[in-house]
Each structure stands twice: as structure tokens, then as C-alpha cells.
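Exercise 3.2. Students should predict the tertiary structure of the chain below and write it as C-alpha cells, then compare their answer with the key that follows.

Predict this chain's 3D structure.
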Amino acid sequence: MRARYAGFAILLVFIALLAVLLWYRQASLPVHEGTFLVPGLQQPVRIDRDAYGIPNIVAANERDANFALGYTHAQDRLWQMEMNRRIAAGRLAEVLGEPALDTDKFLRTIGIARTAQSIYENLDAEHRDLLDAYAAGVNAYLSKRGGPLPPEFFLTRAPKPEPWTPADSIGWSLMMAWDLARYSYSRELRRLQLAQRFSVAEINDFYPPYPGDAAPATADYAELYRLLGLKSASVTAMVAPTFGLGDGEGLGSNNWVVSGRRTVSGKPMMANDPHLGLTTPSVWYFAGLQAPGLKVMGATLPGVPGVVLGRTDRVAWAFTNTGVDQQDLYLERINPEQPGEYQTPEGWAPFASRVERVRVKGGDDVELTIRETRHGPVISGLASVEKGMGQPKSGQPQFVLAMRWSALEPSDTTTAAIRALNKARNIDQAEQALEKFQIVTQSALIADLDGKIGMIVTGRIPMRDRTHDLLGLVPAPGWEARYDWRGYLPTEQAPRSRDPAGGMLVTANHKVVPSTYAHHLTYEWFLPYRAQRAEQLLQARGKHDVSTFKAIQADVTSLAARDIFAVLKDAQPQTEAGRDAIARLGAWDFQMKRDAPEPLIYHAWMRELKHRIFADDLGPLTDDYVDQAELTATLLHVLSGRAQARDWCDDRSTGERFETCLSLASGALDAAVTQLTKVSGRDVAGLRWGDAHRATAEHRPMSNVPGLRRLFDLSTAVPGDTHTINVGALSHRAEAPYSTRHTATLRAIYDLSALESNSVWMGSSGQAGNPFSDSYASMQSLWRDVQYLSMRPPPPREAVTLELKPMR
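Answer key:
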């Protein structure tokens, strides 16, 4: 009898828990239908959502439209917004504990939150009001929200969100700019590190120049660092948070635009697919906004007012990252007699300093002393980041490393740029708006209803002195004035194009200026393969329509694989599986299809080959610099015989001196195929690229919790690779080297003949941030299969409508 009661009690507990879970699942979701009175609104607003949860906001004025956008962002992406602002403010450790401390220290040091506040205070009243209205909308939802918070708050025991501030919005914009600009910063650190082992000529082999360009004519910085007494151990320790995106190859985007003479309709067409880190939910949130003088639809950033990528009813625009070198690192020499001073061209000067307190969940608060020089924040000396550069026996560091970054200016007009772009009526107005887009450099394409197309590079472009013999490629001595910036390039001198004779423009993070362009932008252009393939496909047809643009965005032909195989086609593997593999690759069309074996064979081969070529030279740096990097440009440079400074294919670990690249490649193919067939249990013909090449959209922070990862992460097999238009940059993580976590986060096609009825788009996840929502992953299968949704507001009869009314 007692056992029966106990079993009955357990059953009741189980039923009660299930009931609570079912209640919570529904109660934690926002309400998208009905009428709500909210504080801070001036006039009623209607929010119509379609079947995928995409809102179209109809307001009586622009202020209320942005208020409602803040409200909808908070409804659907509350945890994401909370994480975004904690990242920008350096307050992750408050909810995630000690593992997030180093990231907090770094972001506090570079001063994202302080800069955001300065930018807000320097805005004019009109644009402060825009940000204030957005923040008021977020806070109206927080004040009126009923039911429990999304599950992440419960699982992390995070407190309920504090009121949103306008500086929070600017802070997340700065973090997006950091994600797009830090490639320069990381490459400077890598060259500094490589200079401890290699000559400048050898480093130019490892990081070769852009195809067709000569190697940058720098001073001998390896010798400079040796004379300064920099120690390899201290330099090696200088690794700041990279947010898991490695060396950066393939981290880019595609866009192209054609004039009406290349389209069936006779009006321009444009395509865009920005490549960013895959997250769940996506970094983007789709929305439309309508008010007098405002009719815009596109991709917004949760936490930020306005449409970043999209269209008005007369103009469309698209971005790719230009990659201009907007960051420079400086070695600052410390006064050996007064450690609170550093050397300047005029003598010793005191560091500016401040102390910030970082709260750590489950631990004691940490006091962080932040120093700044005339160039910017001192980024060395952060816990594990650096123990002292060129440290003598006294234990006192001789140098610290400071960073200058264009986005850390105390004023910025990007808020005004987005607002003006959202109201643009023609290409001239759009270009004028983009000239104010200062926060980051982008290759912006524009098309308008009048048939005009164009391109402009946005953002602050640093100007360096002609005597700057390090060219911004490596940390420079901060006490020499010749390495200081000479201001920024005037906007009228930024690269631009209007109505080119060929009737099309393509940008894909490749070099977008001719050799005759008068100003330096960067030496770190990405390889031109995606751009070349897009140009091939655009030129292959006389006239284009939406269907042909869809096919181009779905293209998975890798011109990089074609070029590398051309120099390795005579490899002679010794195993039967290896010979089968080389025969298949010889007949391959270089398409990275999900159901094909060749892409997996090729990438496994390249992974093994680059390790065999470079591991003996890189030594302890191999894991980070070789195994976790793509190195396509490096491989092409070495395998084609253009590398002159070192015999990279001579394996020093064997003691023999007659290895060739082709002999290494033959053995690497045997080893790679043997490993693939062993792990998979299949023969060569049974291998499938999609089994290994999965797109994984990670959740912050639940991806780090094995028991919860399956609930929050999204994963699916995808085609493509780093150099295909339908991109899937390889992660090179040890546990899943062929997976991708960086790919097209949205795809959009704009048809200027009928912007509302013909334009299409899709996103990588869904609109909702709550995993219990039907909209959490509703676009994933469309995105995987390169299918599209209509980019227009929902018809009234199909809409789910939420009305917001002012609380009087």
C-alpha cells in the first residue's frame, strides 16, 4: 500500500512538473495580438506580423515608428539584447561568472561603453530623440511585460533587464564594428609574433600579397623588434579575445548590382548576402517601418533603431566589408624611472588611467586599472593577455601595446546616416547618407527607381604619413611621430563609382580600387574568388531576373579549389583509396555539393597538406596559425612556386632535404583519405560533404552547456565552402574542422522594377529568440535550400495585428 502511494505521489509530481513546463512554455512567449496601452507613445501604432513573425510597423510619425521597433525587438529578442549590451559594457561576468572575465576586461579596456556614451552626448537633439524613442519603446515593453522572462534568464539566474539606454544601442553598433574591423588588429599581432621566428620576407610568404600586387615594402620589423629586445615568450602571450572566429579568412560578404540594360525588366537589380558569425537567434531581425516620409523594409539589429540593410520604396542598398585598415597598434616605451609614464615624441608623458570594478558571479569583484596613451587604450597587461614585453631582470616591462581604432572617436554620425538612408528617395540622397556612415568601412552598393546604380566606400579611412615605413601592418614605435595618423580621408575622396560602362558592380571583400587609386586602404584584401565567380555568372547571361539572381546566390563552385588542384593534379598517392580519390578529383567540377564526396576529400587533403608543409616551421604556433586557419592564399603562393624566402615544403623534422611539395601532397592525400574512410566506415565513394560540413548557429551562452546545446543551437548540413558564393567558411575547430559557423546570415534580392512585390529575402534562423516559439527556427530550412520569402508587408487579412496606444 505504501509503495502504491509513493508511486502515485511520484506520478502527481511528474504531472505537476509537466503542467508547469507547459504553462511556462506558453507564458514566456510575447503576445503579438491585441491592444495594449503603453507609456511614452505619442500616437497609436499598428504592428502587423506575417506567418514568419516579420513585423510591419505603421505609425503616425517617425518617432513612434522607432518606439515600436524598440518594443518589437524587446518582445522577440529580449535575451539577445541583454547579452548584446552586456558584451558591449563588459558585464558578462555578472551573469556568466569567471569564464567571461577576460572578455569583460578587454572590452572595458578598449572602452566600448564609454565611447558609446560620448557619441550619444555629442549627437544633436534630433538624433538623440530618435535613440531616446527607441529606448522608450524597449522600456515600455519591459514595464508592461507579463509572465515569466525567457528561459535563458531562468537558466543563468540573470536578474531582470535594467532599463535600456540610448548608449546601449550605440554600444552594440560599436561591437558590430569591432567584429568587422578586428582582422587588421589580429593580423598585426600575428605578424609581431611571427617576427620572433621568421624574417620579413618569410612572413610575406606566409601572408602573401593580393594577387597581382607586390609584397608591401616595409622596413625590417623583425630586426627592429630584435633591437628593441622584445622576447618571444612575452609576445606569444599577447592573445586578446577573438570571439571564436580565428584568423578571419572567408569572413566577408557578397553584393552585386546590375543596371537596367542587363535585366529583363529594364530596371536595376541588386543582391546581398552578408557573412557573419552564425548565432541563434540570428544577428538580424527583419522589419518594416512606415510613417509620413518613411517607408523602409529590411534587416535591423536588435538593440539598434533603423534598418541597416534593405530598401525604401525607391532605393535599395547593400553592404560588404571593405576591410580598410582602421586599427593600428603601437609599442609604447615605459619610463624605467617612472613606470606611470611613457615616451612620446616630445618626451615622457603620464598615462591617463582609471579604475573600473568588474562584478563576477560567484566570486569577488575585480578591480581593473585601465591605462591610455595618446594613441588609445593599453591592451597589454590584461591577466593572461601579456606578462610584460621585453621584460628585464627588474620585472618591470619595457613596453606596453596601445591601440588606435577609428571607431573610438567621441563623435559619430552613423545614427544620422542610417536615418537618412531609411528615408532616401534617390541615389544622390542615399550616397549623401552613406557619407555619414562613419563607424566602419563598407563597400555599399546603391540602386534607385530612376535606373541609377553606384558604389561608395563608407567609414573613416585613416591617413598615414609617407614616411610610415611599417605601413600599419605591425605594431609601430609609439614615440616616433612619423607613425601617427594624419587625420582621415575626406569623404569626397573615398572610392566610389556611378553607372559604370559595363552595367554592373560586384564587391566581395576583394580589392575594390584600381592600382591607380591615390590613397592606401589596406594590404589585407580577401582573395577575389567569390567576386570572380559572381562576375562570371552575371556575364554569362544577357538579361537577368530574380530567378537568375537566386541561382547565383545558390552557386557552390569553388574557383579556389580549381586553382589549387591545378598545381596538385600530378600527385601520386600510393594507396588504392588515394588513387581512387585523385581520380575523382580529376573529374570533379569543383562544386561543393552536400551529397558529393569530392569536397570532403579535397578539404581533408588540404588540412593534412598544410599541416605537413608548415608544422615543422611554425612549431608551437602550428595549432593556431595552421590547423585553425584556412591558408588558401598561403598554399597557392607556396604550391605555385612563388614563395622565394624559404623552402616551405622541405620537412625539417625528417632530417632529409629533398622533399617536394608534390611528394608531400601525395602522402597527405593518402593520409587524409585513410582517416576519412576509417572514421566514417565508408569507402571513398560513400563519403558525403554534408556529413561533415554542417552549419551550426550557436547560442550565447547555452552552446557551452552540453545538456542544453541541443535545445538552443541550430545545425543543418549545407553545401559550399569558404570561397563559394553560397559560402560556408570552414571552422577548423579540432572537434569539427569542416563545419561552418560563419556564412550568409541573410540573403536578399531587390528588383527595382517592383521593389515591394518582386523583392525577396530569407534569414538563417527565425525572428524569435525564445526556443519555445514556432518562429525560433522557421526560416532555417528555407535558408539551407536557398529559398525565399516575399519582402513585403503582409496583406491585412493574413496579418497578426498588435495595436499600441498611448497611455494617457
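Discussion points: DSSP finds 25 helices and 30 strands in the chain. Confidence is low (pLDDT under 50) at residues 241-246, 383-393.
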